[in-house]
Amino acid sequence: MTDEIRFDGQVAIVTGAGGGLGRSHALELARRGAKVVVNDLGGARDGTGASSDAALKVVEEIRAAGGEAIANGANVTKRDEVEKMVADALNEWGRVDILINNAGILRDKTFAKMDMEDFELVLDVHVTGSANCAKAVWPVMREQNYGRILMTSSPSGLYGIFGQANYGAAKAALIGFMNALHLEGAKYNIHVNALAPTAATRMTEDLGIPDQVFEQMKPEAVTAGVIWLVSANGPSKAILSCAAGGFARAYMAETDGIYLPPGELSPEAVAEHWNAISDTSNINFYQDSNGPNMNFLGKIAAHQ
Ligand code: NAD
């Protein structure tokens, strides 16, 4: 049996924690001993408006259960507000161990009908928002030689959802962001992971999911995976797919591929070998971008 995962003495920032998944993560972290900054701009699902009520309510819930929390209304897209949020956490508790980048909005439309303003705003909240928060805690975590950062990606970013060109692009960008931070954070004991959840929140309430299934898709089912990912013994560079008690790990993978020597190199040869290039019977899971280069160099060497 795994010992109970605890966060005593640790400080966590959860963005967009006024409702939905973020609220569930914040409550569970606090229940397990973490001091929590409950951040939320408090706007509508499409990012319009703002209110401090949502974050305050979650802070009250945490305090009522005997935990410690402070509310924060920073808009994650505003660097100065994010820097102040981290400064406030440091003033209050002196450290930041965990950052859960969870704040997000939706502006769904087919790409043909999508205004570029809606494209930019969605990228701004998910990508720049996550980067602003990571940037503000990065020196703190390096200095502490400890940090756990979670990006909230989505099945939309990994596999695509019709009508979510903006959201899918943003959520895929967070995987690239995770990959680089994982490499740069390794020697400072900073782990960086990503989540690809599906849960019953206001984001999914109009998808027509049957009530019985929607009931099982509670945010708490996703939070169980989150708690493991941000824990001291948790992994790094993992993408955890989860919904309704189901958990699977998603990977970026590449087929072993082929080598076309100079004399055979042509678009037609690529077309002719397409099945071999696409053959998934021999898959590589690379640790960094040197992987594919080393694979191809190996193939060239074997050919000579
Ligand atoms: P939600 O709308 O309840 O939560 C998002 C929260 O982020 C809201 O409370 C909102 O006020 C806050 N927020 C939005 N913009 C902000 C900003 N600029 N600054 C600070 N806070 C801001 O929806 P949710 O489903 O709980 O979503 C949480 C995260 O999970 C999002 O990143 C979402 O994209 C992601 N996600 C959710 C699902 C799902 O099935 N619910 C699936 C995949 C990914």
TrEMBL record:
Question: Is the keyword Ribonucleoprotein assigned to this protein?
Answer: no
Keywords assigned by UniProt?
A: Oxidoreductase
Belongs to which family?
Answer: Belongs to the short-chain dehydrogenases/reductases (SDR) family.
A GO MF term: oxidoreductase activity
Question: Which positions carry the signal peptide feature in this UniProt record?
Answer: none
Q: Does the keyword Isomerase apply?
A: no
- SUPFAM superfamilies the UniProt entry points to: NAD(P)-binding Rossmann-fold domains (SSF51735)
Which ranges carry the Ketoreductase domain?
Answer: 10-198
Q: What is this protein called?
A: 3-oxoacyl-ACP reductase
